């Protein structure tokens, strides 16, 4: 969606090493264009929140939810996103990319229509539905910031290096399901008939970066799995290098959900694609 609206490249589910804590910092999305980059957090908050009950000075938000009017204090997502951007920028510097000052900006997207009237760094539901693929639209202005017009484009060589580093950075595996649904987490294994598991034996994260599922039988009993060998070249894998195997549609994918111990089981017939991080 963001790529269609603003061009550039979106990197989803980044897990950036934080040198200060020794842990990994999750970054929902990073949009990289020729002129700047935006770190985007999507917060699926429930209930009702408005500027009247957002405590900006204390660094927290107060969210009222449910019929019992319970109020929950949440860490300020804007401040959290700025911290993510800072950690990402430090990571890029460690890998040899020193970005121009002010190159990164931050936005928080709130898809709940009951959340409204927020500061400039927050995109509410009403602003989201007004998005248009023109650079001067209101949403684009709120996403990229009012100062975007004063920024110079990054040198092409630096831009290519930035995209290469983000493309090879640690990230969650991504499962694309029917209905334009995405799930982030960790691919664990395939389960099914022995012949099918044997056919899929070469699909390991050390060897494969992406696979696509296609229905090739009349009644959907057989599927074709196309998979792309892992390739760190800047131009990526060519069409001729994709491999394919045929398996039963009843074969299952076991997938541990992001930041959870819960394991999701999905039949291959319900999956569009699976991206594996190195």
UniProtKB/TrEMBL annotation:
Residues 1-111 form the NERD domain. This is NERD domain-containing protein. It comes from Carya illinoinensis.
């Amino acid at each position: 969606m963001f790529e269609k609206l603003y061009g550039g490249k979106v990197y989803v589910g980044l897990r950036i090493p934080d040198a200060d804590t020794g842990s990994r910092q999750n970054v929902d999305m990073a949009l990289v264009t020729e002129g700047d980059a935006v770190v985007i957090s999507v917060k699926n908050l429930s209930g009702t929140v408005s500027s009247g009950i957002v405590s900006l000075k204390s660094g927290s938000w107060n969210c009222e939810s449910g019929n019992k009017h319970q109020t929950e204090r949440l860490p300020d997502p804007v401040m959290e996103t700025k911290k993510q951007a800072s950690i990402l920028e430090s990571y890029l510097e460690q890998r040899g990319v020193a970005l121009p000052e002010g190159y990164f900006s931050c936005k928080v997207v709130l898809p709940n229509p009951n959340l409204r009237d927020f500061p400039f760094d927050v995109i509410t539901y009403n602003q989201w539905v007004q998005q248009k693929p023109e650079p001067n639209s209101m949403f684009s202005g709120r996403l990229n910031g009012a100062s975007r017009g004063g920024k110079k484009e990054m040198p092409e060589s630096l831009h290519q290096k930035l995209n290469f580093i983000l493309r090879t950075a640690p990230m969650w595996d991504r499962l694309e399901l029917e209905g334009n649904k995405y799930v982030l987490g960790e691919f664990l294994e395939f389960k099914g008939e022995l012949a099918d598991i044997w056919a899929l034996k070469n699909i390991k994260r050390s060897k494969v970066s992406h696979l696509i599922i296609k229905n090739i039988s009349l009644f959907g009993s057989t599927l074709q799995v196309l998979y792309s060998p892992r390739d760190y070249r800047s131009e990526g894998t060519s069409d001729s290098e994709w491999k394919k195997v045929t398996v039963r549609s009843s074969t299952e994918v076991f997938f541990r959900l992001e930041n959870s111990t819960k394991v999701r089981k999905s039949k291959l017939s319900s999956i569009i694609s699976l991206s594996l991080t190195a």
